[in-house]
Fold this sequence. Notes:
Layout: E1 13-14, E2 24-25, E3 33-34, E4 37-38, H1 39-43, E5 45-48, H2 49-54, H3 76-93, E6 97-101, H4 102-105, H5 112-133, E7 136-141, H6 160-179, E8 184-187, E9 193-194, H7 202-223, E10 228-231, E11 241-242, H8 247-256, E12 263-268, H9 269-274, H10 279-288, E13 292-296, H11 315-327, E14 336-338, H12 349-376, H13 378-386, H14 393-398, H15 403-413, H16 424-432
Parallel strand pairs: 1-2, 5-6, 5-14, 6-7, 7-8, 8-10, 10-12, 12-13, 13-14
Antiparallel strand pairs: 3-4, 9-11
Helix pairs in contact: 3-5, 5-6, 6-7, 10-11, 11-12
Amino acid sequence: MTSGFFQGIEEVQFEGEDSKNPLAFRHYNPDEIILGKRMEDHLRFAVAWWHSFAWEGGDPFGGPTFERPWHPQDDMGRAKMKADIAFEMFQILGQPYFCWHDADIRPEQGNFADNLRTLNEITDYIGEKMQASGTKLLWGTANMFSHRRWMGGASTNSDPDVFAFAAATVKSCMDATHKLGGENYVLWGGREGYETLLNTDMKTELDHMGRFLNMVVEYKHKIGFKGAILVEPKPQEPSKHQYDFDAATCIGFLRKYGLENEVKLNLEQGHAILAGHSFEHEIAVAAAEGMLGSIDMNRNDYQSGWDTDQFPNNTPEVALAYYHILKAGGFTTGGTNFDAKLRRQSIDAEDLIVAHVGGMDICARGLKAAAAMIEDGGLEQALADRYAGWNTPEAQAMLTSGLDEIAARVLAEGLNPDPRSGRQEILENYVNRFV
Length: 435
């Protein structure tokens, strides 16, 4: 039985690059083999429950613009209707995965006991739909930033009762994720930071956040959850400063609290931009440290200073992101979650499908370009050539020498090296051949 919300919209098919059908894939062919693996298995697409179904189209200057049959999201009947429509969309798109926060899938009850009851009820319902459809859960997480109880943080809150509520909430969401066979569990600390240092004991807050994450890892092993624990960097918004600023900051945090072998990163394109980085930078940093877990694919408007969460449409950016993912060995438990939302004026059901079709096609184009660059080997050869000098015995010996020994060699050999070109423009032009 269908809801009628997507009335008249058929399952999206791959029609090839010449297609002009906005409801067809031009580049995403799930069965196409790329570097020995199906395209679907490389990309591991997921729909974000929050932006696609929970968001009502409001912004800081205006109220909701989407009039969905499951709005307002204040009872279990509407929560189940939302789940019905979500799984209809997954079928239309052929999406293998989805992701959720607890607050996306159940109504807020105001107290933990009722939140737990409704979470268990709706995840039982979702589990039945997963079994019938074959759609899987990429990851679950807890929304610990929207409700007023979280205004001073969750694990970093100055009130120990809020810390306790956060711990209970995360336990419930981990249990639900485990029950549904989720392949990851994500923590994003939207309020884990500060508005002003005038009322903030940063050391205490960081220590509490580190202990909280250790508790999460301990509970993962206690219940036998086989998925990955991921943290998601973001520099600002809503807090003035968030402790999980970027990939490098998170990696330092994980090492400080002994979690570097237990926790990986869920990286978002929009968050990378807010941190002053490119998406490829964040992915490369995580990959270099063996901490690349999963990605949230979207984009920001470069004319805006905030997280606009638009669907991706820049093939060169996406191609370089997947290039570093493929170089790191590709996803294991992670995937490509569309943490992206429609514009407030895009109010039709068809807009929701078209947006995902476009995003999936851009990712497919990017993946194919990335794979072609890897098969060609031009970038790898350029790197090998640039660092070739370090392969000599003299260069390697320096890494185990002292400054006095190296200085003596410079004097003895009369070293006065000439700089060599970084060949950046050649490499940029090389990338443009593939995108």
